[in-house]
Amino acid sequence: EAQVTQNPRYLITVTGKKLTVTCSQNMNHEYMSWYRQDPGLGLRQIYYSMNVEVTDKGDVPEGYKVSRKEKRNFPLILESPSPNQTSLYFCASRSAGTDTQYFGPGTRLTVL
Amino acid sequence: KQEVTQIPAALSVPEGENLVLNCSFTDSAIYNLQWFRQDPGKGLTSLLLIQSSQREQTSGRLNASLDKSSGRSTLYIAASQPGDSATYLCAVPQTGANNLFFGTGTRLTVIP
User: Fold this and answer.
1) pLDDT tens by residue, B78-109
2) A97 shares contact with chain B (CB less than 8 Å)
3) Which of B47-76 are b and which e, b meaning 16 or more Cβ less than 10 Å from the residue's Cβ?
4) pLDDT by residue (tens digit) across A10-53?
5) Any chain A CB within 8 A of the CB of B48?
6) What is the C-alpha end-to-end distance of chain A, expressed in Å?
7) pLDDT at position A91, please?
8) Rounded to 5 degrees, what angle do the CA atoms B102, A62, A57 make?
């Protein structure tokens, strides 16, 4: 089944404790992105990647890092999480030849 | 910067009604518009994608229209069902489609 998977789905952590949210797609898509969704603000892009080893900032990259060492994986790294990073995070992917994006199920992160 | 607005924020209708969801955007220089559905605890599912050269797109009971010049799109749902209850989001791409600008969504409840 074609899908985008994220892990973990739910995470509660404390300020300053490094964490990684994994994202994997099995559709051989070139483009991958991370979004965060907050009430009243909608979804905003954090980082995106056009292919292996090619990444760039989105609208709200501060406090986040990403890497794209393999085509299928695009982990989101929070080196020192803060409470304002409490949010619902989505990973998305799409093929270079189409405009339709496929989203993962989301990761709900709470930083205390 | 593109701004996407969806009104109303929430809508409740009895089962069987036809309904229209609205989406407006400030920059008409778009090359497509997507409608997504978001279910609680799940990711976003792409419903329809309208290219800028198209006026409308249909999938089953769903029909989406696009009027670029006025900066508006509508999603028409015919003969609504309780299973249609979800949040509906519209999104337009930034140049290169590496970023999508999302509206904050309309939460639809279809009452049996």
Assistant:
1) 999 999 999 999 999 876 557 889 999 999 99
2) no
3) bbbbeeeeeebeeeebbbbbebeebbbbbe
4) 999 999 999 999 999 999 999 999 999 998 888 999 999 999 99
5) no
6) 36
7) 96
8) 60
SS (H, E, C) B7-61: ECCEEEEECCCCEEEEEEECCCCCCEEEEEEECCCCCEEEEEEEECCCCEEEECC
The Cα A5–Cα A8 span in angstroms is 9
CB B90 within 8 A of CB B48: no
* Residue A28 φ/ψ region, left for φ over 0, alpha for ψ in the -120 to 50 degree band, beta for the rest: left
d(CA B64, CA B27) in angstroms, rounded, equals 19
Contact yes or no for B34 and A101 at CB 8 A: yes
